[in-house]
Structure formats: C-alpha cells, structure tokens
Amino acid sequence: MIQPPELDLSVIGPVASVGIGAMLVLLLEVLLSRMKSVGDHRIGVYVCSVSVFALFVAACMAAVAFAGGEARAFDPAHPLYQLDRFSSLVSVLICVGAMLSCALAVTYLDALRINHGEFYALVLLATSGMLFMVGAVDMIAVFVGLETMSIPVYVLAGFDRRKLRSNEAALKYFLIGSFATAVMLYGMALLYGATGATSFEGLRAGFDPQSPLALVGLGLLLVGFAFKISSVPFHQWTPDVYEGAPSVVTAFMSVAVKTAAVGTLLRVLGLALAPMSETVQGLLWALAAASVIVGNLMAVVQDNVKRLLAYSSIAHAGYILIGLVAGGSEGFSAILFYLVAYTLMNLGAFGVIVALAQQGQDCERIESLAGLAESRPTLAALLTLFMVSLAGIPGTAGFIGKFQIFMAAASAGQIPLAIIGVLMSVVSVYYYLRIPVLMYMREPAEQGPRLVTSVSEMAVLGFCAFFVLYLGIFPNGGFLLPWDVTVLDWARASVNPFFSS
Q1: Which residues pair with 361 in a beta bridge?
Q2: Distance between terminal CA atoms of the chain?
Q3: At what angle are helices 455-473 and 397-411 packed, to 10 degrees?
Q4: Cis peptide, bond prior to residue 4, ω within 30 of zero
Q5: Are 486 and 403 a contacting pair, CB within 8 Å?
Q6: Which residues contact 343 (CB under 8 A, 6 or more apart)?
Q7: For residue 289, what pLDDT is reported?
C-alpha cells in the first residue's frame, strides 16, 4: 500500500494566504457589485482591504517562521519549497511592498475608473509566485514561481487598456520577458544535463566549475535573472514599461519584482551554485559595472520622472550586483539590507508621483514639479527625502545601504568596482537633487486645482519616510529595536546557512 506523503502544510502558509486572498477578492467584488447600495468606490476600498489583510497575514506567518529559525520543507521526502530564515525575511519584504502598493492604488485607480477587483487579484497572484520562488529549493519550483509571478505582472502593465502606451508597455514586457524566460529555462536544462539534478542540493554536489556545459547553463540562467532585475545589457524594456504602465503598477514592479528576483538569485547562487568559476565572477563584475555606469549616466538626460526612476532602478541593480560580486556573508547580507532601503525609498518616490496624479493623468514631466513646495509643501518635503535617500546622502537608509555594499566590496578586494560605484553615486546626486531644486527654487508654471492627498496615500508615504529616516539615523538599533538587534543582523542570520557548509 502506497503511503501518502507527510506534508507540512504550515510551510506554505504565506503562499496559501495570498492565493486564497486573490480568490476572495474576485468573489467579494462579484457579490458586492450585485448590491445597488454599494458604490464602485466602496467596492474598491473593500477589495483593497481584503488584499492588504491577506498580505499582512502572510507577512506575519513569514515573520513567525523567521523567529523560529528552523528550515522546514513542505514535503521533506521530495523538497521543492522550504521556509527558512532567508525565504522568510525576503517574503516579509515582498509582502510589505505589495501591501503598500495596494494601499496606494485605491484613489489612483478610482481616478482612472479602473478600480476593479482584478487589479488586486493580479497583485496577489503575482505575489504568491514571488513567495514561492524565493522559497524554492529546486529549479522546477523556481520556474513555476517565476511564471506565476510574471504572467500577472504582464497583465498589470497593460491594466489601463484604454491607453495605447499601457498596451504597448504590456506587449513589450510580455515579448521580451517570454524570451528571457525561455533563455533561463534553457540554462536550467543545461545545468540538469551537466549535474543530473534539479534540486539545489544535487546541483551543488554535481556542479563542476570547469565543465563548459555547466558554465553555459549558469550563464544563461544569469541572463534570465539579469532581465528580471533590469541589469545592463538586458535593461532596454525597463524605461518603456515603467513609463507606459500605470504608476501604481510601476511602483509594485520596481520593488516587489526586483526583490523577488534578487532574493531568488541569491538563493540559487548561495545554495546551488556556490562553486562559481572566475569566468562567471568576471561576468557578474561586468554586469555590475555596466549597470551602474549606464543607469546613472542615462538618468542624467531624462526629462520624464518615471523614465528617470527607471534608469535609477537600473543603477540600483548595479549596486546590488556589486554586493553579489563581493560575495560571502557580508556581501549577501548587505544586499538584503539594501533591498529593504530600496523598497522604502523607491516606493515612497513613486507614491508621491501617484499622489500628484490629477484626474488619472500622471505627473510625468520633471518640469511639472516646479514650485511644488509652494502648492503641496508636504509632498515636496517627502519627495525630497526620498530623492536624498536614493542619492545615498548620510542620514538616510540609502546611505547605509550603499555604505554596506561598498564596504563588502572593499573587504572582498573588489576595490575598482567599489570606486566605480562611489563615483557613479556622485553622478546620481545631480539628477536626484535636480528635482528638489525645481520644487523649491522655481515658480510653478501654472496653478492647477489643489487636490487633497488621500489618507491611504499619506499613510504609505509616512510609513516609508519614517523608516527611511529611522534606518539611516539608527542603523544599529534605537528606540524601536534593542541596541543589539538590527535589520543587518537579521540579514546576516538569514544568509549564514549559505556559507556554513
């Protein structure tokens, strides 16, 4: 008699919570739409609340798993997905990014008259794929999670289907993304051919750095990940998609998708492909340097805010790759801290752009921000804070994140790469601070209608601003955390198992 597998259902709690939330959102909208007393705005608020609650529950489950510290597999006999400290910490960060994105969406989608339950369901389904992907311990699970994440995001990019730019963004993202996924899948197939395994444990045991087949497979795998994190030279889709997609979708993509892709890349390299050759290390070095240089230099000449933030995202992918080149516990933990800081400051910057949207029209031109300090002083101050943090100026989370990355690179002997990163950070100060200069030192071109920022938007912006300052001023703990407990300590604890064997 065949014995049924002994499954640990609690391990898939975060993924299940988000997936069930997506189903509930769709059902709730159908039920509420039949009630004539419930308007479209209230339906949007209700389905958004359910989405945020589902993501909050998933984040709490992941946080409890992190506190427990034990690595548990869903099917111990045939592990595909496991919840450990690393996947738990990254899952919490993904859920926080998705929660803040949903909260930003309510008023914005109302103005566009597309505040439908499908939006939140797609966000939840994409998030479930991200959570599954960062907890994968098998290439099959990585691919399943990748596709579960990617397909809803393709749809979200074209969610405002009445606008040609949104449709164009979705089509570009789908075509280029499908090609990148095919390349990644081919790389997985070559790695399977070289090692005879798809599990991370089997890949680690059978990976031969001298094998041409293994190196080509690893290279193709890195190409797929480079696309997802917007690394040069696989970045061409990023400015067009960021500009064409609705701003709340761009905010979600810029933080959650990047966090999931980087987290999975760290997991694959740390658990499965640790014995990398010098050739692959050189490839990562080139990707990091090219991303930092191209991203920052191209951002200088942009006159569209979303395209500027898109090239900024490419540059930040380069900083993350610098930590990957540094490697070791210090490099990987610095990347995780940087992801926390990046999520807060980038989502905050896009949150201000969302709050400035008028009647469904995004505030896209940099020149349109002139005189914002006079008409919307609070939003001007918040956007200044986020720009300062993205530039890496002391006193903000962005500075601590870059400092940790560059210190890890210097400690690993990657001095030239660290110098490139520092020099390009100086370049970034120009285009980031160009925006506060316009807001505070220029008169507004025309006085538009004075709009009131919604409660949900201010809550998101306040949350991001508080922690950008908190992590910048109290990097070693403070009045909220014990002095001997920091986010960097949590990051180190989550990546230490990668280097313990």
Answers
A1: 358
A2: 38
A3: 40
A4: no
A5: no
A6: 93, 96, 97, 255, 259
A7: 92
**What average pLDDT does this structure show over 343-372?**
82
Question: Tokens for 56?
Answer: 């909050």
The position carrying tokens 């490099």 is 331
Q: What is the pLDDT of residues 188-200, one digit of tens each?
A: 999 988 888 888 8
Residues 124, 21 contacting (CB under 8 angstroms)? yes
* Residue recorded with tokens 């990617």: 150
The CA-CA-CA angle for residues 119, 258, 174, to 5°, reads 60
CB 430 within 8 A of CB 423: no
Query: Rounded to whole angstroms, how far apart are CA atoms 110 and 334?
Result: 39
The whole-angstrom separation of Cα 158 and Cα 155 is 5
Angle at 175 between CA 174 and CA 181, to 5 degrees: 80
Question: Quick check: helix, strand or coil at residue 80?
Answer: coil
Q: What is the pLDDT of residue 93?
A: 93
Q: Which residue in 324, 359, 321, 368 sits closest to 113, CA to CA?
A: 359
Q: Extract the tokens encoding 116.
A: 């439908």
Taking the model in full, what pTM does it have? 0.92
Which of helix, strand or coil describes residue 198? coil
Sequence-distant (6+) residues with CB within 8 A of 58 are 13, 14, 15, 17, 18, 91, 95, 127, 131
In the block, tokens 């391990």 appear at: 11
Report the relative pairing of strands 82-83 and 72-73 from DSSP bridges: antiparallel
Q: How far apart are CA 9 and CA 104, in angstroms?
A: 32
